[in-house]
Amino acid sequence: TIFPKLQFCFPLLCSLRNQPLPPSSGSNPCCSEPCQNRGVCTALGTDNYECDCTRTGYHGQNCTTPEFLTWIKMSLKPSPNTIHYLLTHFKGFWNIINNISFLRDAIMRYVLTSRSHMIDSPPTYNADYGYKNWEAYSNLSYYTRTLPPVPEDCPTPMGVVGKKELPDAKLLAEKLLMRRQFIPDPQGTSLMFAFFAQHFTHQFFKSDMKKGPAFTQAKGHGVDLNHIYGDNLERQHKLRLFKDGKLKHQILDGEMYPPTVKEVGVDMHYPPHVPDSHRFAVGHEAFGLVPGLMMYATIWLREHNRVCDVLKEVHPDWDDERLFQTTRLILIGETIKIVIEDYVQHLSGYHFKLKFDPELLFNQRFQYQNRIASEFNTLYHWHPLMPDTFHIEEKDYNYKQFVFNTSVVTEHGIGNLVESFTNQIAGRVAGGRNVPGPIMYVAIKSIENSRQMRYQSLNAYRKRFNMKPYSSFEDMTGEKEMAALLEEMYGHVDAVELYPGLLVEKPRANAIFGETMVEMGAPFSLKGLMGNPICSPEYWKPSTFGGSAGFDIINTASLQRLVCNNVRGPCPVASFHVPNIKETGSMIINSSTSHSGGSDINPTVILKERTTEL
What we know:
Laminin; two-stranded antiparallel sheet; 42% helix; microsome; peroxidase; fatty acid biosynthesis; EC 1.14.99.1; glycoprotein
């Protein structure tokens, strides 16, 4: 059939299928998650509870009976997998849509509003508050929470289902998450994408491990480019030249690179063996970790100083401060444009062409604010993207040779790094068993942190983001072996934890991710991007960005243009997708047949737990 995955859901049947478990006697009755469809549970003693169904579109004791309009809407609405199928097939049809601007705009507007309305704004809960209160709203030191933590007085860690104790994190990771052999991403994702993801997201995923995983140091909660400019004014001032709006830099072999720590005096995390000359100083203190991060830090440093020159030419009367501040806004715009039209476009696999146009939302109900959720941080641990070795020009680097080796950046040069990373394929994220041995410690830490914050189950999050909960372990993994291991470890499919569940989930056909990763990740992502103040009606006009010259830089930005404007000599192809994958794939895949050697290096020791997110 043309539509092998079409699923339409009739709400009365759905509500029967999703009936909550009866409350466990003697414990908090909300432990069984009795309130469905985003209803709010309040315990009334130990043997009764109340569901608040206000504005959910449902009523009844557990918010399971749809109102008439809800019933109509849910009856007609195709499942997420159906929508995904339509958007990733019928290329000829989408080519026509992409060229009819009012249709493209209408679909893009729907994509933005339908996704971002899934995110509560203003924020609601945090790790310490499972009910709405002023502290959870006002304290920016916390990540927000999409679902409240599992109450502390529940019979099991996931409420009332599953075993009394969760499986050992290390054993779970080794059996289900650790790579046996490199599994390349069938979507053809490149390492250029993997390092962009790491570089871009660490401006807002910056856990304050001194306080714990529920806390963040990135109090801007969005795209503010603190990873370029520093997350406080003192650091920013140390990185600035205070002339023509520019950032401090050094020239090596005629090319611009970040200055050294010795020269600017900012804190950076480097182990003792890195010589002073290679201790580059950038906005984020942990970006010396891998050359891929320092490559992007260098590209954006060059772009900042280039844009300053463009603005200075148009506004010779502007002082250093105005040039700096306006350039920062332009780079924020470029970043959002590249993330939507190159990065998210690649990830989606859609034939529909995504568009960054803030004006699409000007007549919509939309809040220009954002708060980063800890669940978003957790799901973004995409370490299976990383290969077994890094292939740059004619050299192969293992993890021990690659980590904290900033000399790779200057030795090969930015152009060669871009070319090499564009041509090396990344790993598949979903489907299990693809986290490289040397960075398994990050996956284990992620499981431990999730437990500390008492996340609800993968299925609870699937329901929260309008997906049907998995009915069995095989339904979740799409195979038998890992399903049996999960059953042995968790006992019940509703007890599978969020992070391991996301990584063992069956991938969509020929895709990098499974359904949950995309359906959860996209709302967080698009709300965070479009909720930026520069996308608001008062900001989104040429004068904000120094006139048409600055506005044009944003509106014509792309990954390829960013690289070409900042690399000397012939411009390499820069892409989130490996070009000519059939020719380069087998050469670079470099599958290891054994476990990746985790004994070579343990960056945890060097980093003292400071960057387990990286």
